[in-house]
Specification:
The protein is mainly α. The protein has 19 helices and no strands. It is globular, with a radius of gyration of 21 Å. The protein starts with a helix and ends with a helix. 47% of the residues are buried.
Length: 404
């Protein structure tokens, strides 16, 4: 759900031990992969038959995010650990928070207006946790599982994956910038690779161990998911020369990986022991696609993923991910639920319109704001305003509904 173009274009392509200079260029195939990921998520949430495993789209997003963020961190000019961290978090806030806030406020207001007696007071607490990017811990604490048939999930359940990513970003940049600052230049990449391999091993092992014991915690916990972001980061460190050794093998491998993602979406379901070891299926396939795409975008399937309409869906994938869930779940929670196929199509269309508007009139203007780019304090004020709006909306609606 992250668009690397604007983030990468404004940075000077300074690298540490330069994994490759081309990494500063835009990868259109990544946008295509984002598009596939968000479509899979929408298909499973819309209960489209045959796509019960569409939740693996989130796994694809995790690997992409680890890849993009690692490249971004390595290219950031050295300003000192504190300044580098501030620069990184300012960009994250501008990129993520405004669109998320708009979605949260709109969702809680729409739920109060449309659900009537079916309005669930729990939603107010869910929104507050989501605004703090702690939705996953809220879900673990309440034991919520939106795969249970017949149980209406919270309208902001999908914020759990955003929370996992932001929790990863709280720790990972500090480690990267510390290595840049303190490690010998000739050993930085090796040391970072070693850390990522260790993180993958420990986090993946914990996921495997916890999944049969506590599947809800295993699904939502950052500690069982960090390995997927670390896997993307490890791919970002791989020398591009490795990917260029055999274009034919590259294309074959990428084709198999793309097919593997599709098969995972078709074969997995709500009863699969997930994440556990099964999460390696879509995650490894995503890593292969990211790796092979470093060599060339001319061959298939990288050229297919770079198709312009698919790329645009990738561009709006963050907003589309934010908006789709409430559009699909609210009608199911009405006094007279709406669940016909025609209604589902209309709901997806409505979510798409909201995503397009959010992308062009909220995401991009805030991200490209000269004031916010120059002044970190202005970005801090923006964050405070967004948090106040999210929380105040829940208190106001709670008072109106007499449930606060």
């Amino acid at each position: 759900m992250r668009d690397p173009r604007e983030e990468e274009s404004s940075l000077k392509a300074e690298t540490i031990e330069a994994p490759r200079s081309e990494k500063s260029s835009f990868r259109p195939d990544i946008q295509g992969l984002r598009a596939i990921a968000v479509v899979l998520v929408i298909l499973v949430h819309a209960s489209v038959p045959g796509f019960e495993g569409g939740y693996i789209g989130v796994d694809v997003f995790f690997v992409i995010s680890g890849f993009v963020i690692t490249g971004l961190l390595l290219r950031q000019p050295e300003r000192g650990i504190g300044r580098n961290l501030a620069h990184f978090y300012v960009r994250r806030i501008r990129r993520i928070v405004p669109a998320a806030t708009l979605t949260l406020v709109t969702t809680v207001v729409a739920a109060y207006a449309l659900l009537g007696a079916n309005f669930a007071p729990q939603l107010l607490g869910d929104v507050r946790w989501a605004a703090l990017f702690g939705a996953n811990f809220r879900l673990i604490n309440t034991g919520s599982n939106y795969f249970i048939p017949g149980v209406a999930p919270s309208l902001v359940t999908h914020f759990w994956s955003l929370a996992v990513e932001e929790q990863f970003y709280l720790v990972y940049p500090l480690i990267v910038f510390s290595l840049i600052r303190l490690a010998p230049a000739t050993h930085r990449i090796r040391m970072l690779a070693g850390f990522l391999i260790l993180a993958i091993a420990l986090s993946s092992w914990w996921s495997y161990h916890l999944t049969p014991v506590n599947p809800v915690a295993a699904y939502y916990s950052p500690f069982t998911r960090f390995w997927q972001l670390a896997l993307g980061g490890l791919v970002a460190l791989a020398p591009v020369a490795w990917a260029r050794r055999s274009p034919l093998i590259n294309s074959i491998g990428a084709g198999i990986a793309l097919l593997a993602i599709g098969l995972a979406a078709l074969r997995l379901n709500a009863y699969s022991t997930y994440p556990g070891l099964l999460a390696w299926w879509p995650s490894a396939a995503s890593a292969v696609l990211l790796f092979t795409g470093q060599a060339s975008l001319r061959g298939a399937p990288a050229s297919w993923l770079s198709w312009r309409p698919l790329r645009y869906v990738g561009d709006i994938s963050y907003s589309l991910y934010l908006w789709h869930f409430a559009w699909l779940m609210l009608p199911l929670q009405l006094v007279h639920p709406i669940s016909s196929p025609g209604a589902r199509i209309a709901e997806v269309a409505g979510a798409t319109v909201c995503a397009i508007l959010s992308y062009h009139f909220v995401e991009n203007p805030v991200r490209h704001s000269n004031l916010l780019a120059r002044d970190a304090w202005a970005t801090g004020l923006l964050l405070a305003i967004c948090l106040v709006l999210s929380w105040d909306s829940t208190f106001v609606i709670g008072r109106l509904a007499h449930v606060s």
